[in-house]
Amino acid sequence: MNKYEVVTAVGEGAYGVVLKCRNKDTGDIVAIKKFKESEDDDVVKKTTLREVRILRMLRHENIVQLREAFRRKSKLYLVFEFVDKNLLELLDIYPQGLEAETVRYCVWQLSRAMQFCHRHDVIHRDIKPENLLINMHDKSLKLCDFGFARRLPSLTLHPSDGANGALTDYVATRWYRAPELLLGSTTYGKEVDIWSIGCIMGEIVDGQPLFPGESEIDQLFVIQLVLGPLTPKQMEIFLRNPRPESIEKRYLGKLSKRAMNFMKAVLVLDESQRLTAEGCVTHNYFEGLVSPSGVTAEEVAPQYQQPTPSRGKYADNGPQQRAHASRVDDHSPYQQRYNTKQSQQEVNWISRGSTERTKL
């Protein structure tokens, strides 16, 4: 740490604190993750080494860049490029959601990050607003926090990456967790990340989590854990309840037809029918998308396309469609956002309510 000076603390996680620092020699601003426990802690050491190994393999413009890793006084430090905001902070500023074209650009960038990860047989397993960094100047999005990422077991190159069969059944903050994870599956795959893309998309459209996780169904589940299953009569009453609000009704007037098709394609209950990362990137929802640098989605996609079999009910929409048990399942920073009025700040390119918007 001698060559860095701490500017401020910017966040804290299960294993450590993230510091905004300045390189004394170059003046560059970086983010340094300082782990709380000593290097002798096997859990911390294993998690850190796994994250370093994966990040060194994943070099992509939509994945946060690891610049260096070092040890000081039995502490582990990871040095990353610094990005000024994360998506959770952005939604604090814009609680009504983001402008439609910004939503499209963010989802496209996240899809590209997952496409790259999945091509390297890496599943992230913890996609949530806190782990999506946003540059407020050029709208670039970067996926971060690979502490719970894994190589797929059948293709693992290192034992600590999750070899020898099953994956851990706890991953992802509850609101962004795929159905197969909620059911305790340990044989899940890349599809869990695709589900999370849909959850993120829904949340940035209107500022509210798509599946908040604390509901009547949650309550029924907890009751049954303690007292056993519902009686036949109770189950009959439960099944007569009206269907919850559909995706179509929830986002009526907020999503285009193509955007709706994309969301429904990633939020398929049957993971085998869920869109792949390849299908996400090439979906026609992104046709005509132009980045701030003038690059179109169509220009980028061919660089990554491979022959991929189409999958799922919505897979024909594009040109080439086809734990750790205690990972802080605490939504306090999220619930605080939905229970507290946030002051509005004017960044015209991103707010749906803005009268002037910078176009992509």
UniProtKB/TrEMBL annotation:
Residues 305-360 are annotated as: Disordered. It comes from the Eukaryota. CDD domains: STKc_CDKL. It is an enzyme of class 2 (transferase). One of its GO terms (molecular function) is cyclin-dependent protein serine/threonine kinase activity. Pfam families: Pkinase. One of its GO terms (cellular component) is nucleus. This is Cyclin-dependent kinase 2 homolog. SMART domains: S_TKc. Keywords: ATP-binding, Kinase, Nucleotide-binding, Serine/threonine-protein kinase, Transferase. ATP binds at residue 34. Its EC number is 2.7.11.22. Coiled coil: none annotated. It catalyses: L-threonyl-[protein] + ATP = O-phospho-L-threonyl-[protein] + ADP + H(+); L-seryl-[protein] + ATP = O-phospho-L-seryl-[protein] + ADP + H(+). InterPro entries: CDK, Kinase-like_dom_sf, Prot_kinase_dom, Protein_kinase_ATP_BS, Ser/Thr_kinase_AS. May form a complex composed of at least the catalytic subunit CRK2 and a cyclin. The keyword Lipid metabolism does not apply. It comes from Perkinsus marinus (strain ATCC 50983 / TXsc). Residues 4-286 form the Protein kinase domain. Residues 333-353 have a biased composition (Polar residues). Belongs to the protein kinase superfamily. CMGC Ser/Thr protein kinase family. CDC2/CDKX subfamily. Signal peptide: none annotated.
